[in-house]
Write a structure and sequence with these properties.
Blueprint: H1 2-22, H2 26-29, H3 32-37, H4 41-68, H5 77-93, H6 102-112, H7 116-148, H8 153-178, H9 180-197, H10 208-222, H11 227-251, H12 258-274, H13 283-294, H14 299-329
């Protein structure tokens, strides 16, 4: 019920923001279709190439994280590409903080005889690394905006919200390394509060994910330098995403300056994270258009660029991922490739 309300409110918010942004430029919107029809095929192909790099970077991120916990490693990147494509699609389709895709890796682990706990630990390490990588990308974008004096109130609020979320997760990581009992209490706190609100009797709540999280954190503590290339790979994911938007802007005649594309990518992705709709629907598109317009890109061109970008970054990965997930579900068990857990 609460999820439905949040999504409805999110839809209303998107509609309202779209009206505020587009109404003053309504005479220019008619040119949007013309910009799309005149898109440069070479730049569209470049955006497609960056999508492939994006997928491979995601797979490499998970392969590196698995190496930290003793499952496969970087050499498994190629094998993990279809699994990762399916996981990315699950995360796009469901608002889950990036955890919906875990099921794809757990299913793959079962086929290969890998313990689910270690698969989940590696996935959580990759999730933490991806947040750090995005935080670095966002910091660079905010610095560019602040230098130009163009940081809007909405962008500042979104940055503050992300900073709070990141700080809470960082606190969980620190506590997880020091005090298991406190971590379990924090982990189950939302479920316990929800029980109180609904006036349900006290009941035990599963903390299996805590064990997975601690396993991943223990791997990071044993091999802190090994996390550096994993974080670098996470940063490469966002670099490929920004490159997709850059090529999309260039394809519709918005110029080839990389800075507007980087800032638009970071701010639109941030709005997609804090927005309540799956995949950041509406929020990403409006965020990208608003930032590009602030850099002097005509609104029709900015709108066309956002449409092309989301076709490559959202709709195509979603469709291909659904197909990949369906094919993987029909796979047969294979021999285990699990490496020994480092001590």
């Amino acid at each position: 019920m609460r999820v439905d309300v949040a999504r409805r409110l999110g839809g209303v918010a998107v509609a309202g923001a779209a009206g505020v942004l587009l109404w003053p430029h309504r005479a220019e919107i008619a040119a949007l279709g013309r910009e799309l029809r005149a898109a440069d095929p070479a730049w569209l192909a470049a955006a497609g190439a960056f999508l492939v790099v994006w997928w491979v970077a995601w797979a490499a991120l998970h392969a590196g994280a698995r190496g930290l916990v003793g499952v496969d490693g970087w050499t498994a990147t190629g094998r993990l590409v279809p699994v990762t494509i399916g996981a990315v699609a699950m995360n796009l389709a469901v608002k889950s903080g990036g955890l919906a895709g875990l099921g794809m890796f757990v299913s793959d682990g079962r086929r290969r005889g890998v313990p689910p706990g270690r698969v989940a630990a590696a996935y959580l390490v990759a999730t933490v690394a991806s947040e750090i990588g995005f935080a670095l990308t966002l910091a660079g974008a905010v610095a560019m905006i602040a230098a130009g004096g163009a940081l809007t109130r909405m962008e500042a609020v979104a940055v503050a919200a992300f900073a709070v979320v990141l700080a809470v997760r960082a606190a969980i990581v620190v506590v997880g390394l020091r005090d298991e009992r406190t971590l379990r209490r924090w982990w189950t706190a939302p479920a316990r509060w929800w029980d109180r609100i609904r006036r349900r009797p006290q009941r035990p709540h599963s903390t299996a994910a805590v064990d997975d999280l601690r396993a991943g954190l223990a791997a990071l503590r044993r091999r802190p330098l090994g996390a550096v290339p994993v974080v670098a790979t996470a940063f490469a994911v966002d670099a490929a995403g920004a490159a997709m938007l850059w090529a999309s802007v260039a394809a519709v005649g918005g110029g080839t300056r990389p800075v507007p594309a980087l800032v638009a990518y970071a701010m639109s992705a941030l709005l997609g994270i804090v927005g309540p709709l799956p995949g950041g629907l509406g929020f990403v598109e409006l965020g990208a258009v608003a930032v590009l317009v602030s850099f002097g890109v005509p609104i029709a061109v900015a709108g066309a660029a956002a449409i092309v970008f989301r076709a490559w970054e959202f709709w195509l990965p979603l469709l291909v991922g659904v197909v990949a997930a369906g094919l993987l579900r029909g796979g047969r068990p294979v021999a285990s490739t699990t490496a020994a857990v480092p001590r």
